[in-house]
């Protein structure tokens, strides 16, 4: 078990299997010393545990947990192409999309679920640049989607 997987276990989390793509793309690709993940939905065992708009059908608190799950799915996708998350030297960028009710403006707080997890797992190397964007709808009516860019050695 890798050091990162041990840290996840300490946090009560396990690295899930890589989620099957919902279209014609790869879950993650390597370019140089960077890993780019596809947008990751909060799939658990291949299904969305909750759907709908944040601020309407989905609470901000639940969406924050789903953003954490998206990041965990992103880490699984990254591990599938670099072998071990112990190779990650820096989380470079996180982009989070929140399917938002028109009155909801708490996207940064939702995407903190992903950012906080990455900080807990990678320490200072988990600090990153980020975008948190509200959108009208996401694939499969997911409440949140997260992309990662990771540097590795």
What share of residues are in beta strands? 15-25%
Percentage of residues in helical conformation:
25-40%
Q: Mean pLDDT across all residues, rounded?
A: 97
Question: What is the structural class?
Answer: alpha+beta
The total of beta strands comes to 5
Termini separation: 18 Å
Largest sheet: 5 strands, mixed
**Cα radius of gyration in angstroms:** 14 Å
Strands ordered across the widest β-sheet: 1-2-5-3-4
CATH H-level superfamily title:
RutC-like
CATH topology: 60s Ribosomal Protein L30, Chain: A
Number of helices: 3
CATH class assignment: Alpha Beta
Taking pLDDT < 50 over at least 5 consecutive residues as the criterion, the unreliable ranges are none
Shape: globular
Along the chain, the helix and strand elements come as HEEHEHEE
Question: What is the strand and helix layout of this fold?
Answer:
Blueprint: H1 3-10, E1 28-31, E2 34-37, H2 60-82, E3 88-99, H3 107-122, E4 129-135, E5 144-152
Parallel strand pairs: 3-4
Antiparallel strand pairs: 1-2, 2-5, 3-5
Helix pairs in contact: 2-3
């Amino acid at each position: 078990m890798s050091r990162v997987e041990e840290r996840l276990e300490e946090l009560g989390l396990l690295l899930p299997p890589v989620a099957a793509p919902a279209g014609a793309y790869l879950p993650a690709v390597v370019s140089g010393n960077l890993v780019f993940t596809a947008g990751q939905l909060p799939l658990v065992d291949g299904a969305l545990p909750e759907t709908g708009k944040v601020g309407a059908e989905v609470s901000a608190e639940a969406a924050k947990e789903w953003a954490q799950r998206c990041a965990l799915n992103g880490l699984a996708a990254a591990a599938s192409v670099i072998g071990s998350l112990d190779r990650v030297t820096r989380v470079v960028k996180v982009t989070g999309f929140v399917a938002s009710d028109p009155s909801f403006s708490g996207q940064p707080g939702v995407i903190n679920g992903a950012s906080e997890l990455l900080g807990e797992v990678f320490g200072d190397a988990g600090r990153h640049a980020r975008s948190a964007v509200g959108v009208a709808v996401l694939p499969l009516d997911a409440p949140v989607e997260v992309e990662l860019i990771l540097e590795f050695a």
